[in-house]
Amino acid sequence: MAEVSAEARIEAPAEKVWAQLTDFSSYGEWNATHTSFPAGGPDKLELGATYAENMKLMGFPAEVAWTVDEFEAGRVFGVRGKGPMGVSVFNRYTVVPDGGASTVRIDGEFTGAAVSLMAGKLKDSATAALNESLRKLGGLCV
């Protein structure tokens, strides 16, 4: 298993950050691992919603089939996915108001036999991607 996380303070109200974070049409502008949504993002972001995403991590392309399994509008959404080679992925996005700004945290987890072979490199690459994503998200929100 490889667990990763990143957190950043974004100088924008939580509502604005949440709106950007959940605008699937603009994922490519801030999400460093995202390449496309083959059939578009979820029709409605809610528990049980499903969608497919093409991603790139450590230079490898992958399609992940996501299911929203945690959702609190304006604050948290978590997705679990199945990727290639039996890899399971979990991502949780959390937005916490902090005065006129927001604290945004992304937690991720990768499990599966293929992960154990490259857990260290995967953790480093994914952590760098999360930090880059938060930096870009912050730039879009101010």
SSE arrangement:
Elements: E1 2-10, H1 14-21, H2 27-30, E2 34-36, E3 50-57, E4 60-72, E5 76-82, E6 88-98, E7 101-111, H3 113-117, H4 119-141
Antiparallel strand pairs: 1-7, 2-3, 3-4, 4-5, 5-6, 6-7
Helix pairs in contact: 1-4
Molecular structure report:
The protein is an alpha+beta fold. It has a single domain, classed as Alpha-D-Glucose-1,6-Bisphosphate, Chain A, domain 4 (2-Layer Sandwich). The protein is built from four helices and seven strands. Strands 1-7-6-5-4-3-2 form a seven-stranded antiparallel β-sheet. A hairpin with a 2-residue loop joins strand 6 and strand 7 (101-111). Helix 1 (14-21) crosses helix 4. The longest helix is centred in the last third of the chain and has 23 residues, at 119-141. It is globular and about 45 Å long.
What is the total number of structural domains? 1
From the N-terminal CA to the C-terminal CA, the straight-line distance is 35 Å
> Quick one: overall form?
globular
Q: What is the string of SSEs from the N terminus onward?
A: EHHEEEEEEHH
Under the CATH scheme, which architecture would be assigned? 2-Layer Sandwich
Which features would summarize this protein structure in a list?
28% helix; 142 residues; alpha+beta; Alpha-D-Glucose-1,6-Bisphosphate, Chain A, domain 4; globular; 7 strands; seven-stranded antiparallel β-sheet
